[in-house]
Write a structure and sequence with these properties.
By secondary structure, the protein is α/β, with parallel strands linked by helices. Helices cover 38% and strands 23% of the residues. The structure holds pyridoxal-5'-phosphate.
């Protein structure tokens, strides 16, 4: 069975990061190989600490995952340091497997999870290795260094294979994500909900990776992931425990 390789940081509040990715992949019935890049202590309101894992440990986690399992797709979330960005780039460069990169720059509470230098390295070195990068508006502005109003120029500046710009930070009755890929532009819209949850970026990127691992094309995987995100925001993960074991 194909596994999804998740390269991400942990979030002790359980809202975002690796645990969110694992829950998402489980909802798609796919097993994961978890690679921990950083450990964070945080609540919904504040980041208390964030410690990147040593490069050697990350390298060995990635190699042992590829050695032990059939990896159908890779999802990258928080990396935490320039060294980690470089290492993950090297480890994935020659693997023929779809890579979805969620360019995590800040915690939901607003603290930096990747310094400016590391973000530049991510932009120059890791981005070309990814089949899809999924920035929200602030991430797109920070990475492209092009003013916010000019979306097309921002996307062009990334020079990526494909970019899914998430519309969560926009306003209006619908929330539209825009995919720029080889075929052109495709919009994915859903009603904008008044409530939000942490971990929406993690959920969407992992759901896309699950679709790619299952053999869907990029556009189909994005459409399926958007539907999954909406269902999760409305209802929560589809429970797999039998009712008598749920509390
Ligand atoms: N990964 C970690 C470890 C985080 O703490 C966060 C946000 O706090 C994220 C990823 C990104 O979260 P989101 O899915 O809300 O963009």
């Amino acid at each position: 069975m194909k596994h999804v390789l998740i390269i991400a940081g942990t979030d002790s509040s359980g809202g975002a990061g690796l645990s969110r990715d694992v829950a998402t992949a489980s909802a798609f019935g796919l097993p994961v190989c978890p690679v921990v890049t950083a450990v964070t202590a945080q609540t919904d309101k504040a980041l208390l600490s964030a410690v990147p894992m040593p490069c050697k440990l990350i390298r060995e986690q990635i190699r042992s995952a590829f050695d032990s399992r059939h990896i159908g797709a890779v999802k990258i979330g928080m990396l935490g340091s320039t060294e980690n960005v470089r290492l993950v780039t090297q480890e994935l460069r020659d693997r023929h497997v779809p890579v979805v990169l969620d360019p995590v720059l800040r915690s939901t509470s607003g603290s930096s999870l990747l310094t400016g230098d590391a973000a530049d390295t991510l932009m120059r070195e890791l981005l070309p290795v990814a089949d899809l990068v999924t920035p929200n508006r602030p991430e797109l502005t920070a990475l492209s260094r092009v003013p916010d109003a000019d979306h097309a120029r921002q996307v062009a500046a990334l020079n990526a294979h494909a970019v899914l710009v998430k519309g969560g930070h926009d306003s209006g009755e619908t929330c539209t994500d825009t995919l720029f890929d080889r075929q052109g532009i495709k919009h994915f819209s859903s009603p904008r909900l008044s409530r939000s949850k942490r971990g929406t970026g993690c959920t969407l990127a992992t759901a896309i990776a699950c679709g790619l691992a299952a053999g869907l094309g990029l556009r189909e995987a994005c459409a399926q992931a958007k539907k999954h995100l909406l269902a999760w925001l409305c209802e929560g993960e589809t429970p797999s425990l039998p009712p008598e074991l749920r509390t």
